[in-house]
Amino acid sequence: MQNSQAICKFYKIFGALKVEEHPIIDDVIEIHRLSFGNFYFFDNLVVGEIHDEVLFNWQKAKEVIDIAERILGEGCQPYYISNRINDYSIIAKDWLNFFNNRYVLKSYIIVTYKNSGIMNMMFERLFYKSETQGLIKRFTSLNDAINFVRNIH
To answer: Of the four listed, 61, 74, 100, 102, which is most buried by Cβ atoms within 10 Å?
Structure first.
């Protein structure tokens, strides 16, 4: 455990930590490498790492949702961590499609490594229905986000 803490501390100081570089990778159920990003499926948790310069829209989100329902069960309500190791865009109003189709997250957790991520998250909050969904949280390290999920799960 000390070694994993040292690895996480190194990345917290020097940059973004990918899921595959974190000890949690040992618990992964399935990894899906899609054209627009990599998605890691755990028990009750999905971590997404969208590729650089992707426009993440409802069609792409629906593809990930379909995979999650196949792995975690139809109607699953996982925690979702968006590990923003790359720069990409989200069509924030597409959250409305998510809610209109009655999908639910326990929490939407954003890991940002740049100050611009704060502004993006504030814009996304305009479309994220926190009264019917779990919390929307922001962390500056993947390790802190994973620990948050472990502590409330």
So the answer is: 61
